[in-house]
């Protein structure tokens, strides 16, 4: 049975309907200048489809929180941490709850990070939870910019990657992207190109009119008609809307945004007292207002921090105050620092570049001198520390050689299995394997474990109780039986303090 929602009235053709099931498979792009009625259109779509499909709204301005009162959407504040947002998103998919992620309290970079974390949690949900979800992203040019801006490269790449996954790979996971933007020129082409349905509103710039006309198959003469569209009027095209360009007017909505368009209001009558004293003299009950703090500078990327650390050389200490360590003491100090980093519970969720930055700071605090280890040497020594290896271990080279033949993304997972196998411990659970690769998704851990097995590095089997046993042919050992669905911390000593 086809489920259609009425979007408004088509010019000379009566009601204009949108095929909701087709939209879930083909996605939607809405474009129009500020004031053209994009938010009104999105609200109409959300209201009409609320009873038929789960909805997730990425709301940078907090305009859609009013849906909660009438349609039961849960409002999620984007001020939560990134890890919390990923877990919330996973629960949203598991329980099929419609939510509005409001980001109005955050600056632009924080909005991008929060949206990337939440969309990533939706994307990495368990396969059993891949139910259809309508994911509406307002002001999509903020989260998928066509060019670099004032935000850090790390935040921009994370947000752009999440939006690309939503529009390019989200269909198989049940995610149907509906994105709205003020200008097509500001939106990344890889994101915009994946939409098959279009609703084009009022546009004035030539470059935007030309791109809109190309998407709708109109010539240049017809493109100029976008300037004449009124607020709430759009031209629709796509398999879920119309096979030919169809002008339509969006219908009324039942809820209203918290912000409204500016309207002229009569000025107040002049006061009897002196107007100069009225504005320059503070009132007795007027609260003290402190100046607003300056906006924080964009957060540098880990690569920028490493370059700054490499260029900054501490001033040499006076000879009489210098206390150089022997080579044995220096190596012992380096081993201690590496074990501290490996035991940090958060170390498994950071890249090697970020951990290397922390390593340099710790070395300088202990006065080990500049550049105690270069990045490749640090990566190798950290891998040995995570696997519980030391120089006296006869199998250290064997473990590191087998690990080096795998992609860096799965080395943490292999090292965790190697540690468990060498100690005869139970096989780590999916949750522990996910932590080892810096993820919150046990499903992703299972896929990477299957990849490692396909490379011949491990062999997995299941006993009669459903416990998993992983053998490592290169080491000649195997883990004990372990429940793959067990919850809890990973193997002690690897990512948790001993």
From TrEMBL:
<dbReference type="InterPro" id="IPR002789">
    <property type="entry name" value="HerA_central"/>
</dbReference>
<protein>
    <recommendedName>
        <fullName>AAA+ ATPase domain-containing protein</fullName>
    </recommendedName>
</protein>
<dbReference type="Pfam" id="PF01935">
    <property type="entry name" value="DUF87"/>
</dbReference>
<dbReference type="InterPro" id="IPR003593">
    <property type="entry name" value="AAA+_ATPase"/>
</dbReference>
<dbReference type="InterPro" id="IPR014588">
    <property type="entry name" value="ATPase_Atu1862_pred"/>
</dbReference>
<feature type="compositionally biased region" description="Pro residues">
    <location>
        <begin position="290"/>
        <end position="301"/>
    </location>
</feature>
<feature type="region of interest" description="Disordered">
    <location>
        <begin position="283"/>
        <end position="330"/>
    </location>
</feature>
<feature type="domain" description="AAA+ ATPase">
    <location>
        <begin position="24"/>
        <end position="294"/>
    </location>
</feature>
<dbReference type="InterPro" id="IPR008571">
    <property type="entry name" value="HerA-like"/>
</dbReference>
<dbReference type="InterPro" id="IPR027417">
    <property type="entry name" value="P-loop_NTPase"/>
</dbReference>
<feature type="compositionally biased region" description="Low complexity">
    <location>
        <begin position="305"/>
        <end position="314"/>
    </location>
</feature>
